[in-house]
Design a protein that fits this description.
The chain is an alpha+beta fold and about 400 residues long. The strands form three sheets. Strands 5, 6, 7, 13, 14, 15, 16, 17 and 18 form a nine-stranded mixed beta sheet that branches. It contains eight helices and 20 strands. It binds flavin-adenine dinucleotide. The site of flavin-adenine dinucleotide has 37 residues, from helix 1, strand 3, helix 6, strand 13 and strand 18.
Length: about 400
């Protein structure tokens, strides 16, 4: 007979994904939920502390487009229950060279095909039309844009707080400064050993520890070929009319070329924001710094000079943050084959928009054995060949 565990669900990590999982587990009647965070709740040592992340339906594969649709619906439920607005629609621009350079990874045609396949409305704009509608941009004839009206930003400072507040309101226990050192799993019970010597048992565990994932996978005999990079984002006071960078005139955007940049209208801080996707150097949690990388900054400034000259000034704020990348940039949403009561979620540095739906899916999988999103999860298996390859080909730009 299985002994009653201390908790039914224990979530490890209270970043974006863990906070969402704690909330969706707490909504289940009679389910005892504990969430453990190694640092202070809301710290900025990981990947989820910011005021804006792009949310969009335009993706390179239909499974992501369908998952994104459920992500919007799930955020809407969180907004309705919390009374907190998380998603701000601004429209979105996938912009860049019309012709695909040989060897450049980002394939705009795949975005067009995926949105068409899933019935997502969008417009194809030539450079002139982009500049006419969004005058902050400077483009040449060789450039074009895909405009999708539902895109926008999700605000982590609001989304994370909403998930945590609601989880607590539904009876979950959220503990900070509670680092898990090791996990053991036997049939029907998972034991978590904390760094403070405590031992806690759970029916099921959800691991949402992003760049720290391998620390807890190792004692369970698992390892993933993850790449951690130190990324940075900067905010600027435009040297032209700031209204050109307001949410009504400056949609979120992604430069669909290498190097790939992305950006936001003014939100949360008094000016527009830009970052380079996978522009940072490889680090570990121990070697990462909070200093601006001047080479990465120079790339951003060169891009701004060329295409968004109104922003090409010294930024008033730069923030560093960690990407944790799988080699194919696909998520991991799966139970450990050897430990079916231990579930892992990894967002491969593009999951904030999916945070609430991925938290929900983890709970559906852990408590119901499957999720309505199963058709979208096939590519996220932990035992896919590339994750078992010790030196996989890495394709980070999608
Ligand atoms: C610069 C930047 C820009 C991004 N832009 C976008 C975007 O535009 N759109 C988008 O959708 N996504 C974007 N992302 C990705 C997105 O932010 C991440 O995928 C998401 O935030 C990951 O959340 P997480 O909860 O998995 O990770 P984290 O926030 O890193 O949380 C992991 C948590 O686990 C805790 N933890 C680790 N080990 C332990 C332990 N042993 N015991 C207890 N707790 C532990 C950590 O302290 C941490 O709080 C961006 C990310 C970055 C860095």
């Amino acid at each position: 007979m299985t002994r009653r565990t201390d908790w039914d669900v224990v979530v490890v990590g209270l970043g974006a994904l863990g906070s969402a999982a704690a909330y969706w587990a707490s909504r289940r009647d009679g389910v005892r939920v504990l969430a453990l965070e190694r640092f202070e709740i809301g710290h900025s040592f990981g990947a989820s502390q910011d005021v804006s992340r792009i949310i969009r339906l335009s993706y390179h594969r239909p499974d992501y487009v369908r998952l994104a649709k459920r992500a919007y619906a799930t955020w809407a439920e969180v907004e309705a229950e919390s009374g907190t607005r998380v998603v701000f629609r601004t429209g979105g621009l996938d912009v860049g060279p019309r012709e695909k350079d040989h060897g450049v990874e980002i394939d705009l045609d795949a975005y067009v095909a995926s949105m068409r396949a899933e019935g997502v409305p969008f417009e194809t704009l030539d450079a002139g039309e982009v500049m006419r509608r969004f005058p902050a941009w400077r483009l040449g004839e060789q450039h074009m844009g895909l405009f999708q009206p539902d895109a926008g930003l999700a605000d982590p400072s609001r989304g994370n707080a909403a998930h945590r507040d609601l989880a607590t309101r539904h009876g979950a226990t959220l503990r900070e400064h509670a680092a898990v050192a090791r996990i053991e799993s036997t049939a029907g019970e998972v034991a978590l050993h904390l760094e403070n010597g405590e031992r806690i048992t759970a029916g099921t565990v959800i691991l949402a520890t992003d760049s720290w994932a391998n620390d807890l996978l190792a004692p369970l005999g698992a390892h993933l070929p993850l790449t951690i990079t130190q990324e940075q984002v900067s905010w600027f006071t435009p040297r032209v009319d700031p209204a050109l960078f307001g949410p009504d005139r400056f949609p979120v955007w992604i430069w669909m070329h290498e190097p790939s940049f992305y950006g936001f209208p003014t939100h949360g801080h008094p000016g527009p924001k830009i970052g380079q996707d996978v522009g940072g150097r490889e680090v570990t949690n121990a070697t990462r710094t909070y200093e601006r990388d001047e080479d990465a900054h120079a790339r951003v400034m060169a891009f701004l000079e060329a295409h968004l000259p109104g922003m090409a000034v010294e930024p008033f704020l730069t923030k560093t943050c960690l990407y944790t990348l799988t080699p194919d940039r696909d998520f991991v949403v799966d139970a450990l084959p050897e430990h079916p009561d231990v579930h892992l979620v990894l967002g491969s540095a593009h999951a904030y928009k999916f945070a609430s739906v991925l938290g929900r899916i983890m709970v559906e999988r852990a408590l119901d054995g499957s999720s309505p999103s199963e058709p979208e999860l096939g590519a996220f298996r932990i035992d896919r060949p590339i994750l078992r390859d010790s030196s996989p080909v890495r394709t980070f730009l999608i």
